[in-house]
Every structure is written in structure tokens, then in C-alpha cells.
Design goal:
This protein is mostly helical. It is 56% helix and 0% strand.
């Protein structure tokens, strides 16, 4: 991926494959939480608990053991077969489908144009949380 492709991309999966972040990278955890927050159908108790724990881990204020245990409980959201486009696209980010180049949850889901819009928004979030990988990060 070139810098121009990065700047214009509407494919968060390709952007994450390019970055290949660690699964516990603070930027990735914040991205995942932001994607979950946009999906009202993913606001069930286990997912809310995971989101809170993920932000605490991203801030370096907790170890990952609790987060891992909570993630196991997020695997079966209520109404799983009727996810919104935002929910489907968010699960692709949460469960790391980008590592394999898959869109496991959003592929074939209803509302493909809405999913494309959501993924374009997710691409903006990737840029927000990870910045531009083609430029040096400023030291504060």
C-alpha cells in the first residue's frame, strides 16, 4: 500500500493488513471499541464489559487476562443472525478477520451499500487511531 492509497482507502481491512498491529495494540483496541459503539445491536452486557476493559488495557491500567476472558463471552451476540450493517462490519474488525483477508461477518449480509458506508467510516477511524504510517511520528 502506498501513502496515496492509504489516504484514499475506504477498506479498513486492507489498511489493518498493511499495519499488521499486535492484537493488544492500544490503537487497535480503541478502534475496536469505536466500531462496537456504532452498532446498537452489539450493545449487550458482555460486549459493553469487554469495551470498558479494552479501554482500560489500552491505557495501560490493567492486564489482559480479564479482557481475554470477557472476549470469550462476546462471541455469541443476541440476535446474531440479524446484525445491522454496522454490527456486521464491526465484528469483522473485532475478531481480526482482516488478518486472513476475510470479511466473515459482513460478506453477503443484508444492506451491502450500508456496509460499504460503514467500512468507509471505519477506514477514517483507522487513520484517526493509527495516523499515517508513511510519516515519522512526532516526539512530544
Amino acid at each position: 500500500m502506498t501513502e496515496a492509497e492509504w489516504s484514499a482507502s475506504t477498506d479498513p481491512m486492507a489498511m489493518l493488513r498493511h499495519l499488521s498491529p499486535d492484537c493488544l495494540a492500544p490503537e487497535l483496541l480503541r478502534l475496536q471499541v469505536a466500531c462496537m459503539a456504532r452498532a446498537p445491536d452489539l450493545q449487550y452486557p458482555a460486549m459493553r464489559a469487554w469495551s470498558k476493559a479494552a479501554l482500560i488495557v489500552a491505557e495501560g491500567r490493567a492486564d489482559v487476562e480479564r479482557l481475554i476472558k470477557l472476549e470469550e463471552r462476546t462471541c455469541e451476540p443476541p440476535m446474531f443472525w440479524k446484525l445491522s450493517p454496522a454490527g456486521s462490519a464491526a465484528l469483522d474488525i473485532l475478531y481480526g478477520c482482516w488478518r486472513e483477508g476475510e470479511t466473515l461477518y459482513s460478506e453477503g449480509a443484508e444492506g451491502q451499500s450500508a456496509i460499504r458506508e460503514e467500512k468507509a467510516y471505519q477506514a477514517e477511524l483507522v487513520r484517526k487511531f493509527f495516523g499515517n504510517p508513511f510519516r515519522e511520528k512526532r516526539k512530544l
